[in-house]
Amino acid sequence: MSNAKTILIVDDSESDRLLCRRHLKDDPQIKYLILEASTAQAGLELWQSQNPDVVIVDLNLPGDSGLDLLEAIRENLEADSDRAMSDLKLPIIILTGSEDVRDAVVSMRLGGASH
After folding, report:
1. Which residue among 29, 30, 65, 100 has the highest number of C-beta atoms inside a 10 angstrom radius?
2. pTM of this structure
3. Structural domain of residue 74, as residue ranges?
4. pLDDT digits over 14-28, tens only?
């Protein structure tokens, strides 16, 4: 899968991760390498070691929240002087059942797109 895109899904719900996997695997044009984590800490470790092309994160995680993960990713990117400025635009998709507009605003400031 040399042309595969690496997707990191960070969600504590196994059924939500399964739903994401199914949708991604149905794409006939792009193959995906899918990484999964159920906590923000595990997600950060996978992000650091695997350098995914896209991160899909649930805001409501046990322990540290999805916003905490976004902040940690942003801090890592800003601290790494070897990374190109374009890496600061890592595509991050936020999944949330929250209707709190503040969550959406904070996540977008940290680089996410709220859906």
Report:
1. 65
2. 0.79
3. 5-114
4. 999 999 999 998 888
